[in-house]
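hiii so um. not sure if this is the right channel but i have a protein structure encoded as tokens and i wanna go backwards to a sequence. like what aa goes where. can anyone help
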């Protein structure tokens, strides 16, 4: 194996670790914030504009729904981070994260505040820009799921 291959492999390993643990840290931190009153206020426009989340908020209350979302984010982040010890659980966490980010991307369609009004072509607002990052996080979840699933295959890597 040449020096270029070694460098490429080292970069790939560093990138995969950064992706996995950056994703996990983001989920743990953002999940923790869901227990703060200001974060309940921050997500209100997203929740009330989404038919399924609006129904959940009506049943549970906005504060409880925010906390439920926060607990989900914390659990998913913890599972993703557990890959060295529990690759199957980590793959499950990554797939759950992919589902979560696919769900939050629907807010682009249901939240009027996600788009700047009075524009000829669609332009995301600050809220829309915030949501667009979930495309990258969705990709990160899919990549970390694949990596963890490879670890669960007979013989590992």
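sure thing!! here u go:
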């Amino acid at each position: 194996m040449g020096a270029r291959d070694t460098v490429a492999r080292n970069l790939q390993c560093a990138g995969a670790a950064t992706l996995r643990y950056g994703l996990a840290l983001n989920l743990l931190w953002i999940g923790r914030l869901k227990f703060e009153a200001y974060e309940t206020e921050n997500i209100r426009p997203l929740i009330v504009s989404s038919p399924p989340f609006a129904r959940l908020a009506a049943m549970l209350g906005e504060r409880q729904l925010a906390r439920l979302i926060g607990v989900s984010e914390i659990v998913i982040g913890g599972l993703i981070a557990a890959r060295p010890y529990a690759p199957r659980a980590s793959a499950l966490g990554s797939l759950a994260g992919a589902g979560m980010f696919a769900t939050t991307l629907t807010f682009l369609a249901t939240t009027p505040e996600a788009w700047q009004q009075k524009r000829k072509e669609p332009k995301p607002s600050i809220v829309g820009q915030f949501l667009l990052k979930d495309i990258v996080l969705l990709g990160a979840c899919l990549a970390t799921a694949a990596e963890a699933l490879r670890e669960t295959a007979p013989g590992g890597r």
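oh and The mean pLDDT is 94.
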